[in-house]
Amino acid sequence: MDNFELICPAGTPAALRAAVDAGADAVYLGFRDETNARNFPGLNFTRQDVADAVDYAHARRVEVYVAINTYPQAGNLGPWRKAVDDAARLKVDAVILADPGLLDYAAKRHPDLRLHLSVQASAANVEAIRLYREAFGVRRVVLPRVLTVPEIARLNAEIDIETEVFVFGGLCPMAEGRCSLSSYATGLSPNKQGVCSPANHVRYEQRGGSLASTLGGFTINVFGEGEQAGYPTLCKGRFVAGDGPAYLFEEPTSLNAMDLLPELKAAGVRALKIEGRQRGKAYIAAVVRAYREALETFAAGRPVPHIDLQAMVEGGTQTTGAYTRAWR
Amino acid sequence: MRDPDVAQTVSNSPAGERARRFETGLSRAGLGLVPRLGRRASDALLARLLRLLADRHPRAFEALREMPDARVLIEPVDAPVALLMRVGPELSLHALPRGADGAGEAAAADAVVRGPYDRLLDLLEGRIDGDALFFRRELSISGDTALILALRNTLDGEDEMDLVADAASIAGPLARALPVLRRNAGPVLDRIDAARRLLPPPLRRGIERLEARLEARLGGTAGTPPGGLPGKLPGTGA
């Protein structure tokens, strides 16, 4: 049985080395600008960093993917096209794109460059995925985190390209690439500027024994004494409506689909993705090591072990997200 | 290059973890002594440490110098001293004692990171994930979040730092003592444990009480204001 490919995040060169050393099959990363959806201060790779990363990873038979997955701004295509050109020049193994115009540019300009469709494209049905395949030669699609496992199985039965799904990390409950919640509070979004809840709009304040998180001046959550804290993302905010404060969209919780490896394999999934380019190298080493162990055990036909990653996750709780959700 | 003996870190074994705790306590006590040297001498010592770190981690320190001028207060809640780091072209590090002497400069910080000394040291050395600490409320931040994130990401982008070894290497005799300590602390602590288990229970409990008192004294928890340094940023709950 072919094992899953394990696709791991890196926000810094040290995190890349940690991911490679811990057992990644491929590491995905972004350039240090708005062309990728994790455009945070102090994060990401210069062109030289990417060249070094490719050397380090390839020497250990690990692939490097570059995410260029924000949407180019009208009249300012230059940075996105340059990112694609540089990724090809630096001999990365694939680029992860979302914008159809940029996919078209990459397919025509760099026909040998492997194209993956980003989760930011939110391609969740057979027709959309076939279109990307036929029009641009996309070889793999990263599925949005809104599908159940049976839906993924049905999809895989009807398409002839690889699918990659998120298995661990921050859980985006929205149709990615189409969520503008962050823009309402800050004027900036992951789709164009590569930032959801940008740090320069985030403040944390002690209010008595409680911790308040604010975004663009709006209070997004107040965590009681001893309660686990989370990022001030609007989709995981606690808002007063009706009888009192409640999580209206999603609780601050993290995805962990380690228990679903048999189901995901049966559904025809090729690659498993760990989220967290914005996290430290200690997180990356711990999570990648845990998933590598789980995959090796699964491939050997033994039951998937329970590996405790509770300490790493937002909100201190884990979920299998939409994969097993019964409601819509 | 770092002396390989000094750079030899403690292992992840139980004995190694205990040795790390011992080493952390020692470095915390050492930090407490820095302001007693007087401002000029302590600034000179910390400038020397920064130069040493910049030599060993040029990528990170170049990035720190390219940041806009700003000040981050790193405040261990269980140590007698906080560190004020100025990033930007005039990169510098200052030790601020608790109390009125350090309050004015602490108040000028653009951002504050606060937590137990051992956690902050683990974080600065890239041994632990800062977000996970924040989720668990072991670490609190206030002020300019983007500044803290930029600092964290810049330092975390380096392969594991060894601040204890670097600090020891500018402190004369400690540079020679640390490798010996690291080699022997774990096994010695294990032997002490084994010997302790043979002691009569009343004597064992007496030793434990004494250790707890020493821990509090070394950590400087006595006399520490509940919210940390006085005169901190508005909105930090102190």
TrEMBL record, chain A:
Pfam families cross-referenced by the UniProt entry: Peptidase_U32
Pathway(s): Cofactor biosynthesis; ubiquinone biosynthesis
UniProt keyword list: 4Fe-4S, Iron, Iron-sulfur, Metal-binding, Ubiquinone biosynthesis
Cofactor(s) recorded in Swiss-Prot or TrEMBL: [4Fe-4S] cluster
Name of the protein in its database record: Ubiquinone biosynthesis protein UbiU
Function of the protein: Required for O(2)-independent ubiquinone (coenzyme Q) biosynthesis. Together with UbiV, is essential for the C6-hydroxylation reaction in the oxygen-independent ubiquinone biosynthesis pathway.
Gene that this polypeptide is encoded by: ubiU
Superkingdom classification of source: Bacteria
Family: Belongs to the peptidase U32 family. UbiU subfamily.
Entry binding sites for [4Fe-4S] cluster: 172, 179, 196, 235
Organism taxonomic ancestry: Bacteria, Pseudomonadati, Pseudomonadota, Alphaproteobacteria, Rhodospirillales
Subunit structure: Forms a heterodimer with UbiV.
From TrEMBL, chain B:
Protein name as it appears in the record: SCP2 domain-containing protein
Stretches for region Disordered: 216-238
Domain of life: Bacteria
The organism's taxonomic lineage, starting at the top: Bacteria, Pseudomonadati, Pseudomonadota, Alphaproteobacteria, Rhodospirillales
Pfam families: SCP2
Ranges for domain SCP2: 104-156
Biased composition (Gly residues): 220-238
InterPro entries: SCP2_sterol-bd_dom (IPR003033), SCP2_sterol-bd_dom_sf (IPR036527)
